[in-house]
Hints:
One of its GO terms (molecular function) is sequence-specific DNA binding. The chain is α+β, with helices and mostly antiparallel strands.
Amino acid sequence: xxxxxxxxxxxxxxxxxxxxxxxxxxxxGFLTKKKEKRLHHFIYYGGFLVLSGRGRxxxxxxxxxxxxxxxxxxxxxGVKHTTxxxxxxxxxxxxxxxxxxxxxxxxxxxxxxxxxxxxxTKLSPMMLHQCIQLLTRFKxxxxxxxxxxxxxxxSFLFHVNSLHQKLNITSHEDRCVxxxxxxxxHCFDKKIDLxxxxxxxxxxxxxxxxxxxxxxxxxPHQYFITKRINEAxxxxxxxxxxxxxxxxxxxxxxxxxxxxxxxxxxxxxxxxFRDEF
Length: 277
């Protein structure tokens, strides 16, 4: 895929939310680089998508990965590593950064991959557009909108992780887990019968549940809860929807049940989230 020449300039933005220098830091942008070999040891989380150029990633124990367009490199908090830019092809990357606590929280919830240093994606015009759009949101954000940028970064990372998962499906079992993830990510207003799903995949319920947790990191139930609350956060940004309407759309018995689970996961009530973000 050919990258427009106008993008081969360093163009970045960053903010510090709530005056927090590390946990409140959010940043993104395009970076150009010349040939380099550099040791990194980030205290926050950084990830970059290779758009053009070739290079290598070397872990602390000496393991190497070749880098090419479409690779997403994770600079995990506290993990030493070396990145090398080499060859004659011009280098361009799009990076995102956020605080280490949010990174670890998303990892514990099974929303992002915190194990692999390199995630594989497929570079496409749509992917490039998402990079441009994210930077545009950073540039245009008002003081009140800065808090929303963290959610924008999360959405970008969810998309990268989703692409990585799809490109790494190598077996029937992986396909079954992917299909279940798809169902659990969208059918919020319907009760999903896992025993019936397992039967559709020619698999026992216990095997499907165990397989899901092995590959995703959390149980199907916890995955569903996390996805539903993530969708709730997005819906709360729509002022035309009342909290009661959101509760119904997401399959909760009532607004109280929704608020109770939302606060348990997020730490604040839906009303507080809507007012603050």
